[in-house]
Design goal:
This protein is of the alpha/beta class and 551 residues long. The protein has 13 helices and 29 strands.
């Protein structure tokens, strides 16, 4: 779509818009929602509820179905929508193209810019606005089929489907299918598609069970219950079906919040022309420790991602469940400067019981760069930082502008990790700016070993990935990924380990729990006292922390 669709406002505060695409009609129903969606992006966590209408309905009929069935209640819980789909083919589902689902996904996006069930695309670097799309999390697509539309799903969607995925061309196979009144015998071509079979014959159910790993058979639908006990736990990332951890079962809570901060002069984001703006965040903590005074970890997501997405995909919540700290994931941080993060930090100190000697920062990709901003601009505030999977040139910030101040002499412990197979520059052997960043950190943190290597001479480096070997090298095997995290520990002048540079094998540009877990192990050893002094983290303590020295 080139322009925003025309909204129909309903008497109860809900909204609907319609659009005709090449192969399908879409009605997008947005139930009334009380969530703070203007500052918290729930989109990556929201189910993409796609109702394949057996026969095309009016907007009023679609709304009624969503309200009565409970699908509207599910959508409202995430600030999202229910999308009704019917084919434009004259013969309806009988003549619908077999790649119709791929067509739907090609018209669907997830973005940090969104309004009224629409994802609005924008170039992060030029600021130019692009097309608008149906807003939906491709990795959480749930198809609801009835009669003829259920037959279409059985015949065309229980298989691997390629198309415009979350990270470019790739596997867009549906996550879950809910099938009611099927009349054709299923012959699934892929086993890892969970199905809820409602009111179907024994023959249909037997065929589904023979061809699929997960089939839940029911006589009557209960969409809200089916979602809460089955559907919501599934996602499909780059083709792989995954099940998410339940925060309740982990003993965790999550609460959204926001604060208003003064816009600093160096803000070059969307709020640069304002005097004040809001910063949203999501706080995660252990229920039994809610009244305790705890360390704080600020968490920054990747470009185009969201606060909830970062925590979920990196599985920081699982690290949190096993340790005692408070995790605050910052929303849309690329609109905020390091100075404005200090304003947020003041707000968090007032709201929560925080151990101010143990404040840490971490982030993935552009969020890693935000942690580098904090290293450069406010090192005295933090006890340690763990940027991951990205860096800019030394002295630059996330806006690709010169930082207003660049730390030259305040030691701040760093745990950095990058992917050895990443297509983006993350490690010294991949880009000169990564080598320069390591040299900068070692200098500021007064490491005994200083990096004076040249990127153009990397064939002669003593270590093919880092260039410079650490004073000790420790490893951590990740059985979930079959990956080895290789950590180079650098000793500083006072015998402490203030710098760890690590690489993860078999890792592309992605977030991993093993990296986060090891980062927390390291950061948690340090305190920044009121007078600015650091305590903790001797070289021997850090080596013992990671067990037997490797390599």
């Amino acid at each position: 779509m080139k322009t925003m669709p025309q909204l129909m406002e309903m008497a109860d505060g809900s909204r609907i818009w319609e659009n005709q695409f090449d192969s399908f009609y879409a009605k997008v129903y947005l139930p009334k929602c009380d969530l703070p969606t203007e500052v918290i992006n729930y989109g990556f966590m929201a189910p993409y509820l796609l109702v394949f209408e057996e026969e095309r309905q009016s907007a009023a009929q679609a709304k009624q179905f969503a309200d009565i069935s409970g699908l509207a209640e599910i959508a409202a819980g995430y600030g999202s929508s229910v999308v009704f789909v019917s084919p434009t083919a004259e013969g309806g589902w009988k003549d619908a193209p077999e790649d119709l689902f791929a067509d739907i996904i090609s018209e669907t996006k997830i973005s940090q810019y969104y309004k009224d069930g629409v994802a609005i695309m924008r170039d992060r670097f030029t600021g130019a606005w692009g097309d608008v799309h149906i807003r939906g999390a491709l990795h959480r697509s749930c198809l609801y089929g009835f009669g003829a539309s259920a037959d279409f799903i059985v015949q065309n969607c229980l298989k691997t489907i390629e198309g415009d995925g979350l990270y470019g061309k790739g596997d867009i196979t549906p996550v879950v299918c809910v099938l009611q009144n099927v009349s054709v015998t299923p012959q699934p071509h892929r086993r890892d598609i969970p199905v809820i079979s409602i009111g179907n014959s024994e023959e249909i159910n037997r065929a589904l069970k023979d061809g699929l790993d997960t089939v839940w058979v029911k006589e009557t639908p209960d969409y809200t219950q089916d979602f809460s006990s089955f559907i919501k736990y599934y996602r499909r990332m780059v083709g792989n079906l995954e099940k998410e951890a339940d925060l309740e079962q982990l003993g965790l809570y999550a609460e959204a919040g926001f604060c208003e901060v003064a816009t600093s002069l160096d803000n070059n984001g969307d709020d640069k022309d304002t005097t004040v703006h809001k910063i949203g965040y999501v706080t995660y903590g252990r229920k039994e420790l809610r009244e305790e005074k705890l360390p704080l970890v600020l968490c920054f997501h990747g470009g185009g991602d969201s606060a909830m997405c970062m925590v979920t995909l990196a599985e920081w919540h699982k690290v949190l469940a096993e340790n005692a700290f408070l995790l605050v994931s910052i929303e849309n941080h690329m609109n905020s400067t390091a100075t404005e993060v200090m304003g947020l930090l003041s707000h968090l100190k007032e709201k929560y019981r925080i151990d101010e000697t143990r404040i840490y920062s971490t982030g993935f990709s552009m969020g890693g760069c935000k942690s580098w901003d904090l290293f450069q601009e406010y090192p005295q505030v933090f006890a340690a930082v763990a940027p991951m999977d990205a860096t800019f040139e030394v002295g630059m910030n996330v806006f690709a502008q010169p930082s207003p101040k660049v730390n030259q002499d305040t030691i701040l412990p760093v745990f950095y990790v990058g992917g050895e197979d990443s297509p983006l520059p993350e490690l010294p052997f991949q880009a000169e700016k990564c080598l320069d960043r390591m040299a900068y950190v070692l200098k500021v943190n007064r490491a005994l070993a200083q990096c004076e290597l040249k990127f153009g001479q990397k064939e002669a480096w003593e270590d093919p990935i880092m260039g410079l070997k650490g004073d000790a090298i420790c490893t951590s095997f990740d059985p979930e990924k079959g990956s080895l995290l290789t950590m180079h520990l650098f000793e500083s002048e006072n015998g402490c380990c203030y710098s760890i540079f690590a690489s993860a094998s078999r890792q592309k540009h992605e977030m991993r729990r093993n990296n986060c877990s090891n980062a927390w192990k390291y950061m948690s050893q340090f305190r920044r006292l009121e007078d600015g002094q650091l305590t903790g983290g001797t070289m021997e303590e850090i080596k013992q922390l990671y067990g037997k020295e490797g390599m």
